[in-house]
Amino acid sequence: MTEQIQRKLSESKTARWAVLALVAFTMLCGYFITDMMAPLQDLLQTPVDGGGLGWTANEYGKFTSAYGWFNVFFLMLIFGGMILDKMGVRFTGVMATSIMLVGVFIKWFGVSHDFGGETVSIFGTEWGYPLLVASLGYALFGVGVEIAGITVSKIIVKWFKGKEMALAMGLEMACARIGTGLAIGITPLLSRAFGNSISMPIFIGLILLCIGLISFIVFVVMDKRRDVEDAAAATGEEEAEEPFRFGDILDIITLKGFWYMALLCVLFYSAVFPFLKYAPNLMINKFGIDPEWSGVIPALLPFGNILLTPFFGNLYDRKGKGATIMIIGSVMLIFIHCMFSIPMLNNWIVALCLIILLGIAFSLVPSAMWPSVPKIIPENKLGTAYALIFWVQNWGLMGVPYMIGIVLDKYCITGMVDGKPTYNYMIPMMIFTCFGILALFISLLLKREDRIKGYGLELPNIQKDADIVLAEEMIGEGQR
Ligand SMILES: NCCCC[C@H](NC(=O)[C@@H](N)CCCCN)C(=O)O
To answer: What is the ipTM of this complex?
Structure first.
């Protein structure tokens, strides 16, 4: 009887959607904290006697780029992928969420503690202690949230394989976007509610992430129960999962298709996530929006993704055309950033329309990109492959905000208001347009490679999933 109930857990629709809800909530908390500083850029750049931290745009760029420091230079993300393949989703997920918590705590300490204006010189540049400590905390947090990201992908594969996998991935991304949308939309309001505080919104993020950890621990209990039950019900016919081999990395990086995917990922995401970090400031400087409401229009992007990512994922599942979807997304990206770069298009309605379009483009590409990876990479190497793609992508997530910060301070200052510089965003937006052009080029190469190698990127996923299930059944039959 107990066994029956437990088997119901492993096969139950309610259980797997509950699992998705639990881990997606953890990711929502992670994305909330990832993006919560963007709407505070104006406040961070406010002089210390005005209640800010007196950072320059360059310093804000340094802080933002810290997200990728440990992932990129210390290869933390790749180690995370290996740990995931070796230790499993439960251990890695709890580890990643705990790392996030420690990281946010350090970041909160950095911006809330009075260091008495002390600075330190690193590689010839002066760093104020709040900036350095907050950046180190954010760098650690970046390790946690990225490893959590690959872990959750593997959890979705484990619980949804042969079922609604692409839809589940789309929904998980949708939840992550809720986190981003809330971060951009409500952080300025939270800050204002606590007297223009920078530290209180971070503290609230910390509390939220504690709930995210509890949510993940509930998943751990369910997943463990499922494994115990699966082990008890095992007939001995199941294939044991292949252990991680270092050779796997070589197998992956020698595939042209992998590189097209990784490059497309870094180019496309570099034109969106780093853009979002500056979008509230762009709204203030170009479209004359009040700082308190500067996050509202950019917040529409992630909120648009919430509906559209699962929608396009479902479309890809049924109709295919994955490579074409990525091409269309890249073309849209070029158009949108090009329009943003034109100085005379400075009415807020233009900003609104362009952000809505960006929301569509940023739903199209991820909904086709992530479910396409398993078509190029064999399943037993997927964890490592996702980690490698994330690693390449992190170069962009780290380098681009840093570069934009430097460009803003060097070439784009148009004046000073209340002790803060005002900016012309034309050059940064042209840089983002160039990423779109390169992304288009790579997506065309990917489509060509798909034609040559027959990865099936243009084929519906459901058809492919059905084939896989059929093939697995046939193998099972044969073994019996
Ligand atoms: N199941 C798909 C997971 C990929 C989602 C993807 N996340 C990333 O690319 C992260 N490496 C970067 C997250 C940066 C957060 N501001 C996504 O589309 O969010």
So the answer is: 0.96
